[in-house]
């Protein structure tokens, strides 16, 4: 039986990699300097590089079921997602953090139903999104609203991370909440001013903002009214 994965690895090495050889060499010689931490659902239909048009080295990726973020205080146990956030902010000094949920999310749907007793870790992980649930039967509109509410919940949880909060408040980092509607090929971005999600084709910013301009003076951040 043909080994499809092996064939793909060979095609990458022989056909795709030569186009990016110099780019990868630079990334090795100079190290990675991604500008964006992208926290997205593990769903196979969500393809961050395709969605954002990013090149190698631009995105620091974290993928998990539901695009959930554990509490900073460790009350939910040790998680790679928490470690990745700390590394991206403190070591890589990213300028943006994107939390990206999507339509038809299996994690959101699972929270409204029963989780297999063979998946206790999944059940506990879903606790991180249950605060977004609505007291209604999970029809299409309820699921869509819950998906978006879950994104906002994760943004709020991000602000509990001291290194994130301080950098957001000083303007060093911006937060972006996205809800990707797979069937439309459009991202709806969260606008903190209106408290709702706006299609990217109609929005004047890429999520959460706009922020008021600020200037630094003698080490203090001043709002420029």
What layout of secondary structure does this protein have?
Elements: H1 4-30, E1 36-41, H2 48-52, E2 59-64, H3 80-91, E3 96-102, H4 106-111, H5 120-126, H6 140-158, H7 162-169, E4 174-181, E5 186-191, E6 196-199, E7 214-217, E8 220-223
Parallel strand pairs: 1-2, 1-3, 3-4
Antiparallel strand pairs: 4-5, 5-6, 7-8
Question: What attributes characterize this protein structure?
Answer:
225 residues; 7 helices; Carbonic_anhydrase_CS; 37% helix
- Strand tally is 8
Give the CA-based shape: globular
**Into which percent range does the helicity of residues fall?**
25-40%
The helix/strand class is alpha/beta
Per DSSP, the total helix count is 7
Structural notes for this entry:
With 225 residues, the protein is α/β, with parallel strands linked by helices. Helices cover 37% and strands 20% of the residues. It contains 7 helices and 8 strands, in the order αβαβαβααααβββββ. β1, α2 and β2 form a beta-alpha-beta unit. The longest helix has 27 residues. It is globular, with a radius of gyration of 19 Å. The N and C termini lie far apart (67 Å).
């Amino acid at each position: 039986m043909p080994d499809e994965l092996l064939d793909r690895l060979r095609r990458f090495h022989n056909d795709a990699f030569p186009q990016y050889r110099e780019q990868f060499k630079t990334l090795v010689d100079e190290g990675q300097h991604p500008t964006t931490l992208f926290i997205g659902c593990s769903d196979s239909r969500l393809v961050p590089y395709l969605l954002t048009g990013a090149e190698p080295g631009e995105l620091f990726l974290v993928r998990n079921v539901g695009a959930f973020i554990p509490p900073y205080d460790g009350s939910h146990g040790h998680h790679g997602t928490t470690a990745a956030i700390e590394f991206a902010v403190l070591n890589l000094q990213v300028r943006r953090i994107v939390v990206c949920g999507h339509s038809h999310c299996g994690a959101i749907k699972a929270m409204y139903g029963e989780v297999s007793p063979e998946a206790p870790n999944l059940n506990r992980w879903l606790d991180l999104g249950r605060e977004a649930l609505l007291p209604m039967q999970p029809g299409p509109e309820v699921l869509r609203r819950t998906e978006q509410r879950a994104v906002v919940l994760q943004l709020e949880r991000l602000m509990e991370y001291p290194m994130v909060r301080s950098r957001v408040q000083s303007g060093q980092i911006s937060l972006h909440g996205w809800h990707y509607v797979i069937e439309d090929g459009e991202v709806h971005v969260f606008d903190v001013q209106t408290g709702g999600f706006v299609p990217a084709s109609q929005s004047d910013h890429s999520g959460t903002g706009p922020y008021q301009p600020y200037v630094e003076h003698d080490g203090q951040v001043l709002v420029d009214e």
